[in-house]
Amino acid sequence: MKVDRVTIMKEALLWDKASGGAVICKLCAHKCRIAPDRRGICTVRANDGGVLRTCVYGRAIAEHVDPVEKKPLYHFLPSSETYSVATVGCNFKCAFCQNWGISQSAGLRKDDVERIDQSGIAMPPQRVVDVALKYMCRSISFTYTEPTVFFEYALDTARIAKDAGLKTVFVSNGYMSKECIDAVAPYLDACNIDLKSFSDGFYKTHCGASLYPVLESLKAIREAGIWLEVTTLVIAGENDSDEELAGIARFIADELGRDTPWHVSRFFPQYHMSDRLATGVQSIDRALNLGRGAGLRYVYAGNVDLAQDTLCPKCGETVMRRQGYRTDADGLSTDGGAGRCRGCGAEICGIF
Questions:
Q1: 169, 191 Cβ separation under 8 angstroms
Q2: Is residue 8 assigned to a domain?
Q3: Does 221 map to a domain?
Q4: How do residues 168-212 score in pLDDT, each as one tens digit?
Q5: Is the same domain home to 263 and 327?
Q6: Distance CA 175, CA 217 (A)
Q7: Residue 79 vs residues 66, 70, 188, 320, 352: alpha-carbon distances, Å
């Protein structure tokens, strides 16, 4: 992508110089080699005279107070508010993107480049934290678009948030590099990662990416001690076979742990897949059963009125009851900071 001008002066993190004035961005698994005066796949990281710069630092295209359940995170500070922030840009090109108006808003024309550099409102990291505190949020979520591509902004905000007693969240496609995870891990408390398919062909065809780096990121996030929940958007005829859904469930159970919540969400027509049919409710129910069959203790349905309550894996009693994005946790005891079933005392995994 040709750059006629670069207006944002913030130098990026995680990059190396290469021959001919090029730079290698090491932020995500694309590892873009960016020639002078051009941008990476995400379109918001630019080679400015042999220096990699971020073009979206401190420029919020979206901000809102959300229930944390909307991320979705069901085992992380339930019934709390999270202050959600995003910039433009994404390192995926998902044909079914639900936030394509801001994540995929960058094109290849000069006026698109100018729109990136002028997008959003000035929202420096300290301001993000101040607003989160003002609205009595318990966390800040980097969401709506891919937080990896505005990593420097998110990292600086997370550092300040930690000092202010706030938790921080990534809602991500999981394409970050190991270097990125290592850098943010001391300041990041929770992630919801999209595992969009268990097929590399699906990732290449519909996302412009590959499966393997996402699987490696999921394992690295778990190893870093960051609370992790996984979401799969189930699309009829694309990623909804028993074999594929069972493969995802087994990977979560075997590699991430049986206590890792899995959200299986119903697809509705969007973006370049607006001509498709909505996924049938029966497909979501089938995915829930495959998840339970793989030994997962917490499997939830999204975009449909099916399993959303948290049941105790030992006695089966309801410990957290959900209606919409609100959670009633009367069946959960959090004495001593740990979550336990009030009925039998069994541990309920999460951050409460």
A1: yes
A2: no
A3: yes
A4: 999 999 999 999 999 999 999 999 999 999 999 999 999 999 999
A5: no
A6: 7
A7: 10, 10, 20, 10, 10
For residues 325 and 250, membership in a common domain is answered with: no
Q: What's the domain range around 46?
A: 15-54
Q: Are residues 79 and 21 in the same domain?
A: no
- Could you give the C-alpha distances from 86 to 129, 254, 318, 325, in angstroms and in order? 14, 32, 34, 20
* Rounded Cα–Cα distance for residues 347 and 268 (Å): 35
Structure tokens belonging to residue 222: 């778990």
Phi-psi region of 129 (alpha: psi -120 to 50; beta: other; left: phi over 0): alpha
| Tally of domains in the chain | 3
Decide: helix, strand or coil at residue 284.
helix
Rounded to the nearest 5 degrees, what angle is found at the Cα of 12, between the Cα atoms of 7 and 14?
A: 160
C-alpha angle 281-285-288 in degrees, rounded to nearest 5: 140
Question: Are 157 and 238 in the same domain?
Answer: yes
Q: Is residue 332 part of a domain?
A: yes
Looking at the chain, how many residues does it have? 352
Q: Give the separation between CA 197 and CA 232, rounded to whole angstroms.
A: 7
pLDDT of residue 244 exceeding 60, the answer is yes
Same domain, 107 and 250: yes
| Same domain membership, residue 226 and residue 321 | no
Residues 300, 262 contacting (CB under 8 angstroms) = yes
Place of tokens 């959090």: 334
Residue 6 lies in a domain: no
- Whichever domain contains 187, its CATH number is 3.20.20.70
Q: What is the pTM of this model?
A: 0.94
